[in-house]
Each structure stands twice: as structure tokens, then as C-alpha cells.
Fold this sequence. Notes:
mainly alpha; 8 helices; disordered N terminus; disordered C terminus
Amino acid sequence: MFGLPHESILSIVQAVGYPGLFAAVFLESGVFFGFFLPGSSMLFTAGLLAVTGVFNVWLLVPLLSIAAILGDSAGYWFGSRVGVSLFFRKDSRFFKHSHLERAKDFYDRHGMQAVFLARFVPIVRTFAPIIAGIVQMRYRAFLAYNIAGGVVWASALTFGGYFLGRHLPGIERYFTPIVLVIIIASMLPLFWELRKPKSDSDPR
Length: 204
């Protein structure tokens, strides 16, 4: 999806509709091979399209929030059952060991709050719930952070696109640079984490 003209991006999101958006958000939120999906830009695009009536924003936000929450829960379940074996798995086309290590380091830094904070960090948001399952984080605490993160993330990006689409006429002409800004902004926390020295202590 990256590098496509804005008309193509808009057309793809419009074509996949509610089911495709639900599936994409679900996969990126906790299924390890879904890390490559551009969740944040898809949410913003869907919000923008809601202005033209392609989507109903009041249906879109709860639907995508549920997809994000269920995706995280699936990731937690997977991590608690078979996730440990991922640390011994070789890299493949759909799995990079470095992504798992990055999420583990992120979790070690932030403890249980990592489940919420990871929502806003690409790649990390896919693997953080898996890590939470591997380390046997209490499910009640996990679910609370999961719900909060899923609702805030889905609402902020979707309503952000909807708000700009309503109040800035002709914004579609600047769609590509806006999406690039979103992608860059979403990557900044990841770059910040990579620059910070690793801590020997576990804040959990």
C-alpha cells in the first residue's frame, strides 16, 4: 500500500469495506504475520472516506475497536500457548525474530502499560500481546489495557480522518503527504525506543 497514489489507497480501503478493515486491524493487532499491514493509515483513510458516505463513522469506530481488542486477545492466547517456541524459530518471509525481540524489550521497559502504549508503535503493537501471553501477564490486567488501547487508537485515527475531511475542503489533494506524516509520526516512538539503552531491570 505504501508508494501508491492516494487514489489507489482510497480505492483499496473502499473496496475492502468493513470486513476487510476488520480483518486487517485484527491481524495487525496480534497475529504475528500481520505486522506489515499499515493499520494507522488505513484507519485514517476510512475516517476520511466516512465524510463522503462510504462508511458510517459511528459504526466504523466501534467495529474497528472490537477488531483491535480481539486481535490483541488472539495474540495473548497464542503467546500463552505456543509463543515461547517463536524465540527458537528461524526467520522466514512472514516472521522476523528481530521484531519479537523488539517487542520483548518494549515490554520490559514499560511493564503492563506496554499493552496500551504498543498500540501506537508499528510492528511492536503486533507482538506486544504475544509477549504478554508468553510472560503470563494476568489476563484481567491485560484485558483492561487491551480495551483502553484498542478504543483510543481506533477512535483517534478514525475520528482524526473524519474531522479533517469535514473541516478542510479538498483535503483529498493532500492525502498522500498526510498519510506519510502519519506513518512517520507512528514510527517515531519505535526509533526512540531503539535509541534508548537497554535496562537490566524488569519494571514488571
